[in-house]
Design brief:
By secondary structure, the chain is mainly beta. It has strands at about 5, 10, 20-25, 35-40, 45-50, 60, 70-75, 80-85, 90-100, 110, 115-120. Strand 4 (about 35-40) and strand 5 (about 45-50) form a beta hairpin. The radius of gyration is 13 Å and the shape is globular.
Length: about 120
């Protein structure tokens, strides 16, 4: 089971920052790669970042590279997404997701949490 607990507000001004936290339960968090996805109104699910099980390998979509940072705390079974320099185009429902294996390469989306709304607007 992937539960998402968000820190910070729902509404952020352009240029602002926000950190999302995802508390995982129901599986051995430390042995699976994890990802963040988002979905904007009228658009499909968009992958934005992944991290391997050990936390030392990360990948990002071009749209967020340099602005978002994915990390994890395996002792706390928690995944994070630090978002900075937020833009209105980042407005979406954000999901954390468990992948099917320990490594980013070769693994796919397995299950995801319920999602949380992030709105970037002045």
């Amino acid at each position: 089971q992937v539960q998402l607990v968000k820190s910070g507000g729902d509404l952020v001004q352009p240029g602002g920052s926000l950190r999302l936290s995802c508390a995982a339960s129901g599986f051995t968090f430390s042995i699976y790669a994890m990802s963040w996805y988002r979905q904007s109104p009228g658009k499909g699910l968009e992958w934005i970042s992944s991290i391997n099980s050990g936390g030392f390998s990360t990948t990002y979509a071009e749209a967020v590279k340099g602005r978002f940072t994915i990390s994890r705390d395996n002792a706390e079974d928690t995944l994070y997404l630090q978002m900075s320099s937020l833009e209105p185009e980042d407005t979406a429902i954000y999901y954390c997701a468990k992948r099917t294996g320990a490594f980013i390469s070769g693994s796919t989306l397995d299950s995801r949490g319920l999602g949380t709304q992030v709105t970037v607007s002045s």
